[in-house]
Design goal:
This protein is mainly α. Helix 2 crosses helix 3.
């Protein structure tokens, strides 16, 4: 099998899947891939052999409990912020965003 460089989306998919303790098959089945093909398809996405279409990436993100932007974010710090903001209650996001904007303007 050829060696592929893992893509950002592949690395992020794998890290979240492993954090959940899920096998590749589970992610595939959860997004509607036939069980017999799910492990191979998710493996190809994680290894960077194929990149999922945005529609599929959106399903993967929803299944893994992360925002879609997280899967594509190249900067690890920004990706961590995306996860943190996603997990905040909606009413806490606005004030935090205003604070961050004020700090960025300094």
């Amino acid at each position: 099998e050829p060696a592929y460089d893992s893509t950002v989306i592949g690395r992020r998919m794998r890290s979240m899947r492993e954090a959940l303790g899920w096998p590749q098959e589970r992610v595939g089945v959860e997004i509607g891939i036939d069980e017999s093909a799910s492990r191979a398809r998710i493996s190809r996405y994680e290894l960077g052999a194929h990149e999922p279409p945005v529609k599929t990436a959106r399903l993967i993100a929803r299944t893994l409990g992360v925002p879609l932007a997280y899967l594509y974010c190249e900067d690890d710090d920004v990706a961590a912020l995306l996860l943190a903001v996603e997990r905040l209650p909606q009413e806490r996001r606005g004030p935090l965003l205003a604070q961050w904007r004020a700090q960025a303007a300094e």
